[in-house]
Amino acid sequence: MADTELSAASETETTEAPPRATENRSTTPRSDAFQQYISTGWAERATGIGGPREQAPFAAARRARLSGLYTGVRLLVPAGDARQRSNDTDYPYRAHSAFAHLTGWGSDAVPGSVLVLEPHADGAEGHEAVLYFREAAGRDSDEFYANPAVGEFWTGPRPSVDDVATDLGLDARPLSALDAVWDALDADGPETLIVREAEPSLTDRLDAARILHAGAEPGTAEVDTARDDELARDLSELRLVKDSFELAEMRRAVEATQVGFDDIIADLPQIVAHPRGERLVEGTFNRRARADGNTVGYDTIAASGPHACILHWTRNDGPVVPGDLILIDAGVELDSYYTADITRTLPVSGEFTEVQRRVYEAVREAADAAFEIVRPGIRFKDVHAEAMRVIARVTAEWGLLPVSAEESLSPEGGYHRRYMVHGTSHHLGIDVHDCAQARRDLYLDGVLEEGMVFTIEPGLYFQPDDLTVPSELRGIGVRIEDDVVVTADGVESLSAGIPRTADEVEAWMREVAGRR
Predict the structure, then answer these.
(1) CA distance linking residue 355 with residue 52, whole number of Å
(2) First to last CA, the chain
(3) Model confidence at 462: pLDDT above 60
């Protein structure tokens, strides 16, 4: 990695705050002759991108829906800045999901951008949507070569204001123009709300202005965040039902994820041979995610053997041993940020043992039962309840419960949940756990509608040290997870093409192995 040097001039002239690189190790030339030389001799920048991207009209429709909920209120939706990983290196950038949903800007979003929905000054309904972002620096500044935080020699070129306006189909302005919005904040102006978690520095700035306008001394008053929380809630609820663009992206994400699972099966000989085979599983899938999408939608779970009993095992530092099962929970995130979330549990040797098959098919039965009841009009929590009926019955039949299945299913029971403590479903979309801030009566207690996308993912996990189960079950963990969409009269599995039954999984592994 190139040393992140910085000239003294660029620290003060081109950024709001000094970048993390320090002058004590900088070798950036500072002479007038160099600055004159590097600022000349460049070709004209290519401009013009044709027309708006595919998702632009869908993002406009989402903004219109949000606008209708907040007449006369100014809304700030930041993309967020890059997050520091260590010293002067950052985590890979991902804009806040609400920002991406409302602008259509995904993996190519410029860090630090802010979407502002400004209410019309004449009091009319609706808002003017303006996107503020850091545009490409001119060659007359030193930013492009001397600033490792944002300079294009360091992080790549940024688009022009005109190109962003055309691409996203909304008004775009330089980030410096956002100062006019901050200057317009006053006690007599429109109420201003912000997505608080998106960019803490902007949230702090707005809170300081609120305290000032309330006439309180800084540090002596608490900020009432209730209205900001309502905004976060409404942004989540806007995503409960997916539009046609989102549904198409979900299908693409699932298709790419299926290829990633094929890649893992194809690489099994190398995976098994490595002492940290789980890491190779992770690397194989993540390579596909980067090739066919933006990245993974969440940290890949590659849980082999007893690690499969750890629900979110992402350390992935164990071996993959023939005779064991490996639980792989993974999803490709596209450049639009829409992600799949698929889990398959595979026999490392290519065939299930009798005990493994029995557990696997019990989980599949629970998944199938949940899938069968999905249709518009039922409640989201009914999906989980249906899967639990199967889990309770099976664990009771196997003699694992101290009570009957019926007693375990009662509110006073829950014994079967020892072997599956998580929920069966969650909404899915631009976040892997999408719509997470929606109200309970619209999420868990909500009524299913056409266009909702969620997972169905029951499991059974018998911990290695669980003395309530026979030794043959200990250390076995199985989860089967599919992504589904509610249709007008039922449900469609978006991941139906990925083998599910024990027989199908074994045939799948033989078929992929035959291509080696």
Answers:
(1) 55
(2) 36
(3) yes
